[in-house]
């Protein structure tokens, strides 16, 4: 009995797939994964919109003349609810927890983290109040006292010019005298 070389026709082993079929299945799997990612992102955006609506009463109380805050949801790889230029709220790793963070020159710091919308609203309220107080302090800061400006004496400027002119004339005559002695 001679055994035939492995031809892939043994019972129980799948036949080799054609590349076109494998690509078709890979595309379907990628679409399923992309759909899950899009669904997660949509869920994050929906939770951030709920929080944004909960923050409406707070920002309605901020006077119009104060333009520190620019609230809005950014759509990107990581959706964020921006409070101002340096502070935003994003979803935590579990996609159900809010994370209120502030970017500083030393890195990002977490100001509050909670599953509860009310906790984050309180943290944002405290943050907005602190920023408004910082703004008031910056605007009320006393200007540096002006030093008395003493008029510069004009004579010194003319004196330096006159001194330079005299030294130039002396140097020119000295050079002419040196050249005349050298030619003798």
Please tag this protein with its features:
184 residues, 3 helices, alpha+beta, 52% helix, five-stranded antiparallel beta sheet, single chain, disordered N terminus
Short description:
With about 180 residues, the chain is α+β, with helices and mostly antiparallel strands. It contains three helices and five strands; from the N terminus they run αβββββαα.
What does this structure look like?
The chain has 184 residues and is an alpha+beta fold. Helix content is 52%, strand content 14%. The chain is built from 3 helices and 5 strands. The chain has a 5-stranded antiparallel β-sheet with strand order 1-2-3-4-5. A hairpin with a 5-residue loop joins strand 1 and strand 2. The longest helix has 42 residues. It is elongated. The protein starts with 18 loop residues before the first helix and ends with a helix.
């Amino acid at each position: 009995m001679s055994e035939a070389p492995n031809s892939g026709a043994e019972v129980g082993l799948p036949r080799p797939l054609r590349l076109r079929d494998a690509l078709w299945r890979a595309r379907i799997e990628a679409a399923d994964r992309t759909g899950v990612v899009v669904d997660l992102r949509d869920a994050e955006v929906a939770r951030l919109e709920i929080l944004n609506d909960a923050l409406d009463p707070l920002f309605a109380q901020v006077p119009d003349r104060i333009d520190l805050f620019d609230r809005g949801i950014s759509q990107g790889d990581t959706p964020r609810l921006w409070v101002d230029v340096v502070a935003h709220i994003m979803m935590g790793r579990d996609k159900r927890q809010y994370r209120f963070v502030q970017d500083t020159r030393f890195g990002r710091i977490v100001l509050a983290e909670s599953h509860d919308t009310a906790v984050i609203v309180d943290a944002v309220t405290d943050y907005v109040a602190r920023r408004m107080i910082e703004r008031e302090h910056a605007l009320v800061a006393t200007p540096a006292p002006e030093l008395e400006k003493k008029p510069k004496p004009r004579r010194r400027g003319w004196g330096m010019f006159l001194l330079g002119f005299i030294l130039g004339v002396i140097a020119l005559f000295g050079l002419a005298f040196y050249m005349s002695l050298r030619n003798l």
